[in-house]
Amino acid sequence: MEIRLLIFIALVSAAILTKLTWQKGYRVFKLLPLLFIFALAFLRPQNVDTLWLAAISFGLAGDALLLSEKGFVPGLASFLLGHVFYILAFARETGGFFYTPPLLLGVGSVVIGVSSYFVRHLLQSRQKKYIVPVIIYTFVSGLFVLNAFRFPFFSYAVCGAVCFGLSDFLLAFNKFIRPSWYVQAAVSLTYYGAQWMLALHFRSL
Q: Cβ(135)–Cβ(77) under 8 Å?
C-alpha cells in the first residue's frame, strides 16, 4: 500500500475518532484529510483539473461550515455547488449530458424514493423549512451519480460518486431521523473515501 494512502487513512481515522470522542479536536482533524488531498494535488500542479479543484474546494468549505449547527444550510449549499462542478467535470469528459432510459429510470427512482422518505419524516417532525433544500440537494446529488455512471461500473468515478451519495443520505438520516455514533462514523468514512477516489479519477493525486 502506498505511503500516501496510509497517511490518508491515518488522517481519516483521526477525524472519525475525534468526531466521536473529542469535539474540540475534531474542529482541526476534520479538515486534514481534504487538505492532504490538496497538498498531494499541488505536488504536480500541471495535473490539477480546475473543475475538480472547484468541486473539492466547495467540499472543504462545506466541511468547515458544518462544524457549526447554524452552518447546516450554508454547508449544504457549498456541497451542492461542489456537486455541480463534479457534474460539469464529468460532462466535459463524456461529451455532454446524454443518458440511456434504463439509467435515467434507475437513478430517477432512487432520487424520488429518497426525497419522499425524507419529506415524510420532515413533515412528521415539523421541520418543514428543510424540505425544499433537501429536495434540491437530493436531485443534484442524483444528477451527480447519474453522470458518473457514464464511466465503467467499477471506475473511481462511479465508486466515488456512489460513496458521496451514500454519505449525503447518511448525513441527512443522522440529522433528521436517527442520530447515532455509528452513522456519524459512516458519514465520514464514505465522504472521505469518495473525495479520495474522485481525486484519483481526475488524476489529481
A: no
Q: Which domain holds residue 50?
A: 3-201
Amino acid 14 reads A
* Cβ 141 vs Cβ 83: under 8 Å: yes
Q: Are 201 and 156 in contact (CB under 8 A)?
A: yes
Task: Residue count of the chain, please give it.
Answer: 205
Q: What is the mean pLDDT of the chain?
A: 92
> What pLDDT, in 10s, does the model give residues 96-149?
877 888 889 999 999 999 999 999 999 998 888 899 999 999 999 999 999 999
Query: How many structural domains does the chain have?
Result: 1
Q: Is the pTM of this model over 0.85?
A: yes
- Name the nearest CA neighbour of 90 among 37, 190, 160, 185: 160
Grid cell at residue 11: 488522517
pLDDT at 98: 76
- DSSP per-residue codes, the chain: --HHHHHHHHHHHHHHHHHHH-HHHHHHHTTHHHHHHHHHHTTSGGG--HHHHHHHHHHHHHHHHTTSGGGHHHHHHHHHHHHHHHHHHHHHHHTS----HHHHHHHHHHHHHHHHHHHHHHHHTT-GGGHHHHHHHHHHHHHHHHHHTTS-TTSHHHHHHHHHHHHHHHHHHHHHT---HHHHHHHHHHHHHHHHHHHHHTT--
